[in-house]
Specification:
seven-stranded mixed beta sheet, binds S-adenosylmethionine, about 300 residues, 2 domains, DNA polymerase, domain 1
């Protein structure tokens, strides 16, 4: 387990941004290697933390890393969209602060055998939750050409999606990551490849998002999380790509908005009241130093909101 190395991004900004009570109750919706949670527990006197992760390996590592805070930490294995269940199972009615650091952790990407990486050969897998029975193998070998085109185009923002999907379908069954890389390279004309970027990067991101239902869970989870915040409690979310950031931004904007009646209505009939106040009008970005030290930080964006 000692090789589970993940450098937390925007660590101070996220934890400082959500601590509202040094004896409060907090939730880390994406516990990972527990970098953010450890700092939160160190900074708070007697605060409790509920840590959620769908990856059993991450939970095991986090449990060991947080063992010195015994009695202050509860763990939940599952999707963060089950935050309400995780809270009630642990007798928690409301949180003082909630944080999420979305996406994959470095160990998930770096552990070749988990099949996330286009740099190492491994069976097609990409499951964050290793107890799930749906993997990249199912997406690549069982989805129709049209479905693959949609996923690679939408989640990977890959302009060669249609051709990549066509080549995948023609070359099935595809069993390993490097077989998939070769198919993608054959589909994307060498002259059209982005400078500096790996030709498989966007397709691998797209398949990973599909396997783990990454975008599906976000809006639902944020709604539930905000409803579980105490008044004055804070939620902070870090994203790593534009699709995720857009979802967080839109979810925050919807919850920060009051009446949604058409402007032509003389009086409000919807009765909708704002639930949150957005603290970060513009997302917080890592500084140059952090990006030099940790290149994963480059695309990170942090948004924070406060429950009214
Ligand atoms: C970027 S890492 C978090 C790293 C952590 N903040 C740290 O400082 O070590 C993201 C973690 O969230 C988990 N994760 C991603 N999506 C999830 C979801 N929908 N439900 C539960 N866990 C999720 C992943 O398994 C991964 O361990």
């Amino acid at each position: 387990m000692s090789e589970f190395n993940h450098v937390s991004v925007l660590k101070e900004e996220l934890t400082d941004g959500i601590i509202t009570d040094k004896n409060g109750i907090y939730c880390d919706m994406t516990l990972g290697g527990a970098g953010h949670s450890k700092r939160l527990l160190e900074l708070t006197d007697n605060a409790l933390l509920l840590g959620i992760d769908r990856d059993p390996v991450a939970l095991e590592v986090a449990e060991a890393r947080l063992s010195c805070f015994s009695g202050r930490v509860k763990l939940y294995h599952g999707n963060f969209s089950e935050i309400d269940i995780a809270a009630s199972e642990n007798g928690i009615e409301a949180f003082d602060g909630i944080m999420a650091d979305l996406g994959v952790s470095s160990p998930q990407l770096d552990d070749a055998k988990r099949g996330f990486s286009y740099m190492h050969d491994a069976p097609l897998d990409m499951r964050m939750d290793t107890t799930s029975n749906f993997s990249a193998y199912n997406v690549v070998n069982e989805y129709s050409e049209a479905e693959l085109t949609r996923i690679i185009g939408t989640y990977g923002e890959e302009r060669w999606a249609k051709r990549i999907a066509e080549f995948i379908v023609k070359n099935r069954p595809v069993k390993t990551t490097l077989e998939l890389v070769e198919i993608i390279k054959a589909a994307v004309p060498a002259g059209a490849r982005e400078k500096g970027g790996h030709p498989a990067k966007r397709t691998f991101q797209a398949i990973r998002i599909e396997v783990n239902g990454e975008l599906d869970a976000v809006s639902e989870a944020l709604g539930k999380a905000v409803s579980l915040l105490k008044s004055g409690g804070r939620i902070g979310v870090i994203t790593f790509h534009s699709l995720e950031d857009r979802l967080v931004k839109q979810a925050f904007q919807t919850m920060a908005k009051g009446c949604t009646c058409p402007p032509s209505f003389p009086v409000c009939v919807c009765g909708k009241k704002p639930e949150i106040k957005i603290i970060t009008r513009k997302p917080v970005l890592p500084g140059d130093k952090e990006i030099i030290e940790n290149k994963r930080a480059k695309s990170a964006k942090l948004r924070i909101a406060e429950k009214l």
